[in-house]
Amino acid sequence: MEARAKPGYRPVMRPERLNSLFAETASLKGVGPQLAKPLEKLGLTRVKDLAYHLPDRFVERRAVTDLDEASVGENIVVALTVREHRASSGRGPYRILAEDAVGNVCTLTYFGRASYTARKQLPTGEKRWVAGRLDQFGQMLQIVHPDHVAEDSASLGGRLCEPVYALSEGLTQGRVASLVAQALDLLPDLPEWTEPGLLERMGWPGWATALRSAHKGRDAAARDRLAYDELFANALALMLVRDANRTRRGTPLAGDGALRAKLDLPFALTGAQQRSIREIEGDLAQESPMLRLLQGDVGSGKTVVALSAMLVAVEAGKQAALLAPTEILARQHHETLMRMARGTGVEIALLTGRDKGRPRESILMGLLDGSIDIVVGTHAIFQDSVAYRDLALVVIDEQHRFGVGQRLMLAQKGRRTPHCLAMTATPIPRTLTLAQYGEMDVSRLDELPPGRQAIDTRVVAAERIEDVVGGLARHIDGGGQAYWVCPMVRESEGEDIAAAEARYAQLAERFGHDDVVLVHGQLKPDLKDTAMERFASGAARLLVATTVIEVGVDVPNATLMVIEQAERFGLAQLHQLRGRVGRGAARSVCLLLRGEALSEVSRERLALMRETQDGFRLAEEDLRLRGGGELLGTRQSGDTPFRIASLEQIEKLLPIAHDDARLLMERDGGLTGERGEAARLLLYLFERDYGVQLLRGG
Ligand code: ADP
Ligand code: MG
């Protein structure tokens, strides 16, 4: 056992046998500064990230002896003899006529610079093996930008089934594939952490085999095994957090209600708010630290519940902290709390990463000497340099943005373990609640404050954008404010930003540059804040944004929202976005612009948005609609806390992972013993090692 003196997160050395996996991608052959950037964009900074960069799908090609054997639309490999090069006339493509074994003619078509390589690869009169998708152009068979051209069949033999990876600007399939191959060569030999009975029942391969085979072709068993590893690691870590918390001692907090009685609220609490506050009070009065999730739809009034909880701590002579995911939100929370608590005399400070120098020093001093009762901020409030006199409660807003355990660990700042209240507006389906929060206690705000109006939601075809802009003009002329949301969906973030910027330019042209602001993820924080502040204060009338406005922004006068390419968002995300309007007494409108070619499922999903405003229902239905039969890799990022496991796999495998984690902890000796040691490696592998730290830190 280690000393118990110092609570908190102390990094323990990662087991050496995982070193090759955690080596930086820069250590691989051929990775220089030029590749580092696009790789980083995809989150591929270490060897293990590459090994786990599983293909989105596979191209499967058929080798045919001649084109009569192939059908249009099919991916093929065929031998062709080059007959003639036709340089482009003007801006047209470069065409190469080629002939198969029985005299069928096929055009190989190249646009732009690709033609230079083609000229070299396909000399007239020579025979070449070509891999690509057979198309028809008028009467002519053609292959546009063949995937591969080779002199002999052998070098295309291995290309009949080829992975297709997610890319970012500056990367090619070939480059990623070769890096992945290098990563796979570096896989260490790891002991099995999966329960042997389960492995056998499922017919799953071992870890390294599963990884290799998941890159080679469709292999459901391999993918499932890898997903299971991730889910098991998560379940195990949450269980460790939970267990450690049970044995920890916190400070029972009993407030006398004196401060809460002085709150300046322009409304009466809803029944759900009162109930949640009672549940929290009950937890706070216990010696074991609270670990509670407050789940409530957007606008359900979580902030005042958080404030009440924090005031209990202050009444008991302690401090409380509120952690927000972004600076904008921290600022807003700070203002709201100051307003509601102005009659209480409670000292509330704001601390973000931007505070430097003397103002920061004075806040740090106040936290240390206890003259500040409540601090609101970003993760800056948990930096090592920040010490509290007596922190007894940590509230974490928009919990889903943070890794649960990590944040809980960061929260270990008090002399004793502080109580923890996590809040989320994400209506997480039950399956996922378990995944994200393990066995946390949950309070639900299942009742909206009275007087909220339904948001009038309409689906509009994108061709009618001019009408929409016209409506927007009337809305703004009438004194209203509005959001215009652009999606983040393209292959590279740069293109998304470009699209948002283009839209911003158009709208600013139309409505005046003073009236329109743009906010996106790559904007410098101070520019972002300035833009947000101008919008919040009413100086700017229209906010063009990517999804950064998703969480928490509160501008009641903004009652119109336009969402472009709405079909590309997850329903839960749309719901969050839409929750930015409908905050005041006025009627609110949300226009969902949709593209032309919609799948049946997309149609149904948008219809559902129109129909209901119940976040839980939307989340459940979304899961159902997207559940069956979707291709690999089509899940939206950010929907789940997992990188490998799809929603479907979560539904199928999570309960098993959860049971198995419990079995390991309760029956099989936890992280000791042979399987326990292996499971420990797994926790490191999936960076859930805070679970391990807990065992030591105590
Ligand atoms: P959430 O964080 O859950 O999305 P907020 O705490 O920001 O919601 O509350 C949304 C809005 O509802 C705020 O303007 C808040 O003042 C108001 N509000 C909260 N509780 C009530 C209530 N019981 N009655 C009326 N309005 C309320
Ligand atoms: Mg909120």
Task: Throw out a few tags for this protein.
698 residues; alpha/beta; OB fold (Dihydrolipoamide Acetyltransferase, E2P); Rossmann fold; 7-stranded parallel sheet; 6-stranded parallel sheet; 24 helices; 22 strands; 40% helix; disordered N terminus; binds adenosine-5'-diphosphate; binds magnesium ion; Probable DNA 3'-5' helicase RecG; RecG_wedge; ATP binding
Helix and strand layout, with pairings?
Elements lengths: L18 H4 L10 H9 L5 H5 L5 E4 L1 E2 L11 E12 L7 E6 L5 E6 L3 H8 L5 E11 L2 E5 L3 E3 L3 H4 L3 E4 L8 H13 L10 H7 L4 H10 L3 H28 L23 H14 L6 E6 L5 H14 L3 E5 L3 H14 L7 E4 L5 H13 L4 E4 L13 E6 L7 H7 L8 E6 L5 H8 L3 E5 L10 E6 L3 H13 L3 E5 L7 H19 L4 E4 L5 H12 L5 E4 L12 E6 L7 H8 L10 E6 L5 H12 L3 H13 L19 H20 L6 H13 L4 H8 L1
Parallel strand pairs: 2-3, 5-7, 10-15, 10-16, 11-13, 11-14, 12-13, 14-15, 17-22, 18-20, 18-21, 19-20, 21-22
Antiparallel strand pairs: 1-9, 3-4, 3-6, 4-5, 6-7, 6-8
The structure holds adenosine-5'-diphosphate (ADP) and magnesium ion.
Adenosine-5'-diphosphate (ADP) binds next to α11.
